Fold:
Amino acid sequence: MPNLKDELHCAGWGPACGCFDSGAAARRTRLVLPCLISSRIYVVDVGSQCRAPRICKMIEPVDVFWKCNKGYLAVTHPLPNGDILIANMGDPAGNGKGGFLQLDGESYDLKGNWENECEAPPTGYDFWYQAQHNVLVSSAGMVPRLAGRGFNPEDLKKGVFGRRLNVWNLSCRSLTQCFDLGEDSLPLSVRFLHSPEAAEGYVGCALSGTIFRLYRSCERDNWAVEEVIRIPAKDVRGWIMPTMPAFIADLVISPDDRFLYVSNWWHGDIRQYELARNCKPRLVGQVFVGGSILRGGPVTVCRDEELKCQPEPLVVKCKRVYGGPAALQLSLDGKRLYVTNSFYSTWDQQFYPSLIKEGSVMLQLDVDTDKGGLTVNKNFLVDFGKEPNGPCLAHEIRFPGGDSKSVTLP
Structure:
């Protein structure tokens, strides 16, 4: 990339993802890269020469600031009409401000804000929608200018970490419902089931270690939430706080809507839950791929409701894996789960300083899709520590042929 310190955190496909009323061919040729720190937007052509991607459009931060009064860009998805929607975390000064930017689906020009100015949430990060139900759901993020310094326990109970889940009317672009998921819960990841008819999804709250089920209630056009998973915190010594909560960095749902996968960036495990109608998710698989509680590390676990001993460090192809599981991606047949271990560069430096020196990795987990279960593939490793210009921090993963984190359109 031509610039440094962009923080290429999220990535999404352009309108060729199969948007049903744009007339675009269902080919993925443009990758949209919003930048979490600089607020720049890149559009990369990955279709002309898949082994030689090139930047075909770049929107500078000043244009985002002046036209939208927003910054700190996060998750992006194509809309049903072919335009591109990008969620933001703050305003140009780094104060908390949610909402969305809209790009033209053909020219990739910045159109402006998607929502009405008076309805911008306090913070933002992720979103997902179900077009058949005319609903878009967005999560909360962090106040960028404070969270960008690193995690500070003194910021708890001060509104730095979001707590709201927002429900929007997709066609009217209006906010219709808000759910308070608890102080400092930090709901980050939002995922609907893949079936276009499904009126159900899941929300991962990073700091509270909880997952909520989102569903349409009996009342027409109203939605409801219920807590269905709570990962216990651990009492520890040698860490930034005496209690280490689970940090839910990402969620992914299998294409057949049978399994939910959860990455726990601080504890270091990836979990597989079986989903069943009208039942709470059932844990059927778990594997540790790093984290802060490894045996021999600086943190001692004093009390643990789940484990009898601290996990062993992971070594794959003679490389010690540092960091914790962050971004997930699942193959379309549901049998291979991929994971990277960088969450956010400032927080990487704080919690996993060895990751900055050694670089991050991408791992592959083999998935038992019959009975459930996860196993690290010891023959697969993408080592980003060996890049020619120095170690890199990898986060988002996308598949050119379609992936399990793209919005499903009828």
